Amino acid sequence: MSEPKLLMHNAKQQLIAWSKYGVLWSETSKEKLGEFTESEIFNNQREVVAKLVGSSVLSLNNEIIGQLKVFQNGRFINNEPHSFELLINGKVVGLCNCGKGMSAAVLALLRKELTENT
Q1: Is residue 1 part of a domain?
Q2: pTM (predicted TM-score)
Q3: Is 101 among the domain residues?
Q4: Is the distance from CB of 4 to CB of 82 less than 8 angstroms?
Q5: Which residues are 10's β-sheet partners?
Q6: Does 65 reside within a domain?
Q7: What is the 3-class SS of the chain, one letter each residue?
Q8: Residue 18 sits in which domain range?
Q9: Could you report the per-residue pLDDT of 8-40, keeping only the tens digit for each?
Q10: Average pLDDT of 77-98?
Q11: Are the C-beta atoms of residues 107 and 33 closer than 8 Å to each other?
Q12: What is the structure's pLDDT at 114?
């Protein structure tokens, strides 16, 4: 059985990224952004660029990039359940219908795009 395409929306509910099999793709440029596991985020050269510790996404210098907040009852966009709010500096910048690993990857790899669109 094929893994479903997991979707990521910015705070304006615009689709900005998607993932399959641990690879994150930009919806706008259609380019591969990087890869992720449940605890690490990699660039396209397979170098670790960030890590997930608890609900915080940290840079390699242990600076907080952003945080994940779990929806208690879920939230639906276009009939798709979204399970995480993505926060940067306490402000909601995105919504993800995926696991913690992808949510963390979105914060680490799309930080600039997320903050420009809020």
Answers
A1: no
A2: 0.84
A3: yes
A4: no
A5: 94
A6: yes
A7: CCCCCEEEEECCCCEEEEEECCEEEECCCCCEEEEECCCEEECCCCCEEEEEECCEEEECCCCEEEEEEEEEEEEEECCEEEEEEEEECCEEEEEECCCHHHHHHHHHHCHHHHHHCC
A8: 6-116
A9: 888 888 889 999 899 999 998 999 999 999 999
A10: 78
A11: no
A12: 87
Six token digits for residue 21: 């099999």
Region 63-68: mean pLDDT is: 96
Q: What does the mean pLDDT of the chain come to?
A: 87
The span from the CA of 103 to the CA of 67, in Å, is 9
Question: Is the pLDDT assigned to residue 57 strictly greater than 90?
Answer: yes
Please work out, in degrees rounded to the nearest 5, the angle formed at the alpha carbon of residue 51 by the alpha carbons of 115 and 95. Answer: 40
| Residue 67 counted as domain residue | yes
Q: Domain count of the chain? A: 1
Rounded Cα distance between 93 and 110, Å, is: 10
CB 93 within 8 A of CB 84: no
